[in-house]
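Render this sequence as a predicted structure.
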Amino acid sequence: MSSGEFITSHAQAIRLFPTKLTRFRIALAAAFVLVFPFVASGYQLGLANLIFINVIAALGLNVITGFTGQISIGHGAFLGVGAYTSAYLVSVLGVPFFAAIVIAGLFTALVGSFFGVPSVRLKGLYLAIATLAAQFILEFVFRSWTSVTGGSNGMSAGSASAFGHELSGDTAFYWILLPIAALSLLFVRNLARTATGRALMAVRDHDLAAEIMGINLFRSKLIAFAIGSFLAGVAGALWGQYVGYVTPEQFTLGLSISLLVMIIVGGLGSALGCVLGAVFVTLLPEALSEGAALFVADPAAVAGTLAFLREGLFGALIIFVLVAEPAGLAARWQRIKTYWNVYPFAR
């Protein structure tokens, strides 16, 4: 009598969804996100849309930092490149929505590859400083190239439409963002199973050993920056079309740090960790705001103090999560699954 699912081949070991229980969990998650817009409020749909965009951006950064081990502190600026590109294409040139998203992603991949060239010679903190320079350079471009970006005033993202319908409102964007986020997640998850993905992880683990094995370091690192920047460009383009207006203040160093926090809290190198990290970083400030409102009679009167306390508590909770689970939330989830898979024999 069968007492479990046994892996007897390499093909089984690297399957995306190796067990029936995994497929059941995926089906439950799919059912939840499909039903959610019918029962959620507009505010909740807005948060869900923001999570989808953050998931796409975090997946891109995870390819660069989690898979390849290249520290990037300029990822937020790459989102800005995608946002401004799509805004210009849609509002000025009249390019269709989906074509603008793809072109924005490709252009951002080109920009990211350009700034990724120093990664061949630099690593660690030196590479972090180089990508930080990219952040400041792109911010300067956003503010100074007024004929294209509108300068500090920003620019309209235009009126997006798809399948003959104008995209307006949280519900319409939910059905656009959901499949794009799902495809991005599937792509990055599948990338780890390919020869290219394994080469990226070999570079991360030990670049000298990877080079001795015949892996082209320049090509691998450039591919990582291209893929990561493409996803960042797509996320930025979707963000710009969603909010309808693009300004330099949306893509500052703070956004880059937030994206780094997402993949570190979620778990470096894990596609699931990007989802968990995006949910955590997106919802935690909102949860803290809602919690503060329960204890303050007039939140508007002490808005400044509440914002200060919220930011402080937000940072403290992130530190607590990192101390309690250094490998990220994805590793914690893996341990929970392992425990219940062998229950009641687990200790």
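Summary. Residues 40-341 form a domain with the ABC transporter involved in vitamin B12 uptake, BtuC fold (CATH 1.10.3470). The chain has a mean pLDDT of 85.
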